[in-house]
Amino acid sequence: MGEIVLSKVMKSFGGVEIIKGIDLTIADGEFVVFVGPSGCGKSTLLRLIAGLEDVTSGTIAIDGRDATDLPPAKRGLAMVFQSYALYPHMSVRKNIAFPLRMAGLPAAEQQRKVEAAAKILNLTPYLERRPGQLSGGQRQRVAIGRAIVREPAAFLFDEPLSNLDAALRVSMRQEISELHQSLKTTMIYVTHDQVEAMTMADKIVVLNAGRIEQVGSPLDLYRSPANLFVAGFIGSPKMNFVEGAEAAKNGAHTLGIRPEHIDVTADGPWSGTVGICEHLGSDTFLKVEVAGVGTINVRAGGEVPLHHGDPIRLTPQPDKFHRFDSAGQAA
Amino acid sequence: MAREATKGRKAVTTLVAWGIGLVIFFPILWTVLTSFKTEVEAVNPHPSFLFFDWTFENYRTVNERSDYFVHFANSSAIALGSTLLGLIIAIPAAWSMAFVPGKRTKDLLMWMLSTKMMPAVGVLVPIYMLARDSGLLDTRTGLIIVLTLVNLPIIVWMLYTYFKEIPGEILEAARMDGATLSSEILYVLTPMAVPGIASTLLLNIILAWNESFWTLNLTAANAAPLTAFIASYSSPEGLFYAKLSAASTMAIAPILILGWFSQKQLVRGLTFGAVK
């Protein structure tokens, strides 16, 4: 069981408020991703839940029990760090067994659990090696193995994939998702990568400057962002923001249109010139200078025969418009 | 661009380095050579460097007159005892300074180091009286306590610089894994810091072995280490250079041998952290 409830959690470091009053309920078995730009407090929030930092005020309850003042070891949570944080002087076997050894489990029981975890994570051939003799992906799997043997109430991941190369990141992402499906344990995952957030999360928590901007499922956030920050943060390429006459015509202070919701047409209302044209094969990303509107990002189809300097006409899809008021809130 | 090391420059540098090395080492070499001379040869105003009648007579005499092994045992007990006691105190101290520093940690470290700048003789009388009143005068225990305190600042500093190099996340991982403070230090921090602890241990053994101010002033016979053994051959016996040299050679031999075999570890320890 792993329901985690944060109420009015605040954290200051030397008079500077980093976390400014967070209320959040994470249901048992949920995969929650904290996402936000660097410095938004997402890692600090995770460390507060872990107990590695003390809250300045507010409470943290785990499984209905107040855990605000409990030390990390007593919270029943397991954490996977960005730097893996393996014990360099211990073999993989001893690394994974360490939490069990600390819990005072009998040696035979420890070995049985280590072998089982190693099997799930394909680490069996490497059990006798030291962390220094493993690749980045294997080290990350050892770190995950060390977390799963404890059968924790929840897993905490602090940007676990950011030290891996792009290809490995994609496969580890899927491994962690599969792990969540098989274990069905609460997972809290911190990342600045919105693709990781969108692909893995049941629920995304978008943080900015120590506050929650919006909480919702990935598609909720994509379809109806609550404000300009979330609208700009979720989605790739970034949403276009149009102000001025074009926005006023559509009844908004700022008009948001996603690049994939703009069609290249022969007789569209927006006419412009192609600036940058990125052909990816499956998609074509265009940067278009539209007269009277500004620079607009467009996601066109697979093989579009356009190049730098070509004239172009665009049709935005009016039913996909996002309207924001002058305070930046969704109208 | 790599600096061009011409052959000539290299030769000159090597020569200068050897020259400086020999000047530093010469007194020790002279002592060792003198210990094999007769007393008459030792005070010869025109000393010969290698071509004299080599004799072991001095070593025989020194061993007959005083018990080398008693002093050796005292030196070993004091050096090892003060080093181990120092480490037991310094490891937790350095841990807290490195991983949970407070506002005044830097000041505290500087203050500890500043105590090494004070002349020891300034506190000789109070420490002598304390040792006398507590019955620790001329005991190994007394010297172990005093030398532990004398060298503690250096041990704490060395360990502190070592511990600073260990990523804090690993200790946090241990905390998440359910390790208590003592098991975190015992199973995670200490094994990772073994090279640092080893060089601290070696350096401190050398410092404690060579310490002569407190060992001479706080001992008489029972706990007298090798420093007192050498000193006993200086004034009261008159000017017996050869015997004094033999005693000195015997006193410094163990630590020289230890230093020789551990020099790599020592250099690594003293320069650790200079470059990543």
Describe the protein:
The complex is a heterodimer of chains A (331) and B (276). Chain A starts with a strand and ends in a 7-residue tail after the last strand. Chain A is 27% helix and 32% strand. Chain A contains 9 helices and 18 strands. In chain A, helix 2 crosses helix 3. Chain A folds into 2 domains: 227 residues, Rossmann fold (3-Layer(aba) Sandwich), CATH 3.40.50; 88 residues, Nucleic acid-binding proteins (OB fold (Dihydrolipoamide Acetyltransferase, E2P), Beta Barrel), CATH 2.40.50.140. Chain B starts with 6 loop residues before the first helix and ends in a 5-residue tail after the last helix. Chain B is mainly alpha-helical and 276 residues long. Chain B is built from 14 helices and no strands. The model of chain B has no long low-confidence stretch (mean pLDDT 86). Chain A: This is ABC transporter ATP-binding protein. Chain A: It holds the Pfam family TOBE_2. Chain A: Belongs to the ABC transporter superfamily. Chain A: One of its GO terms (molecular function) is ATP binding.
| The CATH superfamily title of the largest domain in chain A | P-loop containing nucleotide triphosphate hydrolases
**Total E-strand runs of chain B:** 0
Would you tell me which CATH topology of the largest domain in chain A applies? Rossmann fold
Biggest interface goes to: A-B, 22 and 18 residues
Helix content of chain A: 25-40%
Strand content of chain B: under 5%
| Helicity of chain B, as a percent range | over 70%
Counting DSSP H or I runs of 4 or more residues, the number of helices of chain A is 9
The figure for the number of domains of chain A is 2
Task: Kindly report the name of the CATH homologous superfamily of the largest domain in chain B.
Answer: MetI-like
Rg of chain A over CA atoms, rounded to whole Å, is 23 Å
Transmembrane segments (chain B): 12-33, 77-96, 108-131, 143-163, 184-207, 240-261
InterPro entries (chain B): BP-dep_ABC_trans_perm, MetI-like, MetI-like_sf
Subcellular location (chain B): Cell membrane
Pfam family, one (chain B): BPD_transp_1
